[in-house]
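Below is the record:
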Amino acid sequence: MSYEKTRTDGGVALKPAFLEGELSPAEAVALQLELAGKVVPEDGFSGMPLSVAGVDVSIRKSPGGDRAIACIAVMEWGTWRVLSVAVAEDRVRFPYIPGLLSFRELPVILKAAERLSEWPGLFMVDGAGMAHPRFFGLACHLGVVSGCPSVGVAKSRLVGTHDPLPEARGSRVPLLVGGRVAGTVLRSRSGVRPLYVSPGHLVSLKTSANLVLASCTRFRLPEPVRAAHKLAGDQNLLYS
């Protein structure tokens, strides 16, 4: 499966310079601003997706330069049975700059996605969606490029402000970025730190939060993201 086979009419072709890591930070910002206009923050599906993929990327130090490891776990919705997993490793081609992490992580995610035997109905990404300085985080970038619905599930707040959040599970308040509602601060378990959920592509604000809460069955994180985290931990042990 290649990008050309999976993208939709709403997708955009990646510039060769991006995949080769030849973009400057200023060019990367300009590309984000351009692609942010391609994001569709509305549901591109009805009901629940049949399967959801959790996406996790870890960076490890190497004598020859940083290496990125992308792990994707596709799970059946509701049963949380693993349908497919994929792992890819690649060198990091872009410097660490907050707000531009997709240029470090997306190439290796796409490499892993090509190895999936089961294409998901939705991606849940460990990272930001529209809750981003330019409303175009990693989940947005993956969604626009693949044409697949996507949601950002961040464990910490990158940008924005919000009102106090009640301690009960399911509590939620809007996350405002520049006066715009860009995401939801969601309490997935009573008394634990919240998640910062935001649409990536082809998913609405309300549905994003509902899907994440429904997939947090016993733990703070959604089951697909937890599965990808576990897979990443196993890979880090292999490479340590």
About this structure: Helices lie at 3-6, 16-19, 25-36, 102-113, 138-146, 205-215, 223-239. Residues 1-17 have pLDDT under 50 and may be disordered. The chain has seven helices and eight strands. The first helix runs from residue 3 to 6.
